[in-house]
Amino acid sequence: MRQDSRLSRMLHVLIHMGRHDGPMTSDMIASMLDANPVVIRRTMAGLRDQGYVCSVKGHGGGWTLARPLGELTLLDIHRAVGEPSIFAVGPAYDMPGCAIEKAVNATLRDVFADAEQRLLERFAGVTLADIAAGFPSTPSTEKGTRCDG
């Protein structure tokens, strides 16, 4: 099963934006992530709608942070990218009449709901500045080119 990497990719982009001097175009971001600029614009529009980034059209335009990295949490960005599923595992519904399957599914739903709630609480306590503080500023983190690090 393919993992949903939207959260990780947007955290990556936003930290680059926090270290970049000036706007970053959708083409720059797409090149950095090896993605389609249309997908980048769509995703960034969701972040803009939440007030996390701003966009300027025309020559010299692009995307910039609307708030400092210290005011953006993992939870904020998780929600802005559509609250992708936290877990790739889940209940099975192969035998809906089976009492054992129902009991297993009920238990799994409770356990996963509890684990997800704890994880989201942890997300709320981590800012993008916390992540950015974990590595030094280098030339590769300052440019809008493909990131290899």
Automatic annotation (TrEMBL):
GO molecular function, one term: DNA-binding transcription factor activity
Source organism (scientific name): Agrobacterium bohemicum
Pfam families assigned: Rrf2
GO CC terms in record: cytosol
Name listed for the protein in its UniProt record: Rrf2 family transcriptional regulator
Segments crossing the lipid bilayer: none
Lineage start: Bacteria, Pseudomonadati, Pseudomonadota, Alphaproteobacteria, Hyphomicrobiales
